[in-house]
Amino acid sequence: MTIRVVIADDQALVRTGLRMILDNADDIDVVGEAGDGAEAVRLVADLDPDVVLMDVRMPEMDGVEATAAIAAAHRTRVLVLTTFDLDEYVYAALRAGASGFLLKDALAPDLLSAVRVVAAGEATLAPTVTRRLLDRVVTGLPAPTSDERLDLLTGREREVLQQLARGLSNAEIAELLYLSPGTVKTHVGRILTKLGLRDRVQAVVFAYEAGITR
């Protein structure tokens, strides 16, 4: 299956570089380019791509607002492009419904892998990057608020969510909690269903906002 991608970045040179990398992959097709968030939202409505590579800071409508609009109305998944000096915007984009983020200086194989993972319905936050991102933005978050959805989780599911929010992979969680990786995967799936979340990225955001971990 060919993965259809829209690139949204206000810098033409960046768009060109991303297109060159993506066009070299047999299973990825760049179907459109947008210079701002509003144009990205229009392209998604017209083209129904699988993935949008979304810059954060753009004129007219930034990547956060565009991500929220796309996540609310379309099946298209958003992969945020960023640098670490824009962490606060990335957190907002993840909260708005992005399926992950990628650094702009990522290597070509990492970019291709991230697009494929997101297109498959998974998240792209590598464990170490999750920790770095959330450690940097957590000091600016509001105080955690009680969320009644937590009552839907079993004790074991809360434990898995807590470790997931720390940025641990399924294999690492399995080793820590003396479970099989398959059991952890099942717990993660149940957590997402019970909390009404799309992927483990949103589960991490939820855990921080609900005070599961800080």
UniProtKB/TrEMBL annotation:
Q: Which GO terms describe its molecular function?
A: DNA binding
Which keywords belong to this entry?
A: DNA-binding, Phosphoprotein, Transcription, Transcription regulation
A Gene Ontology annotation in the biological process aspect, one of them, is: regulation of DNA-templated transcription
Give one Pfam family, short name only: Response_reg
- Which sequence positions carry the modification called 4-aspartylphosphate? D55
In terms of superkingdom, the source organism counts as Bacteria
UniProt key word Transferase: no
Q: Where is the HTH luxR-type domain?
A: 146-211
Please list the residue ranges annotated as the Response regulatory domain: 4-119
Leader sequence segment = none
Which CDD domains does the record match to this protein? Answer: LuxR_C_like (cd06170), REC_NarL-like (cd17535)
Entry-linked PANTHER family: TRANSCRIPTIONAL REGULATORY PROTEIN NARL-RELATED, TWO-COMPONENT RESPONSE REGULATOR
- In Swiss-Prot or TrEMBL terms, this protein is called DNA-binding response regulator
Q: Where is the organism placed in the taxonomic lineage, from the top?
A: Bacteria, Bacillati, Actinomycetota, Actinomycetes, Pseudonocardiales
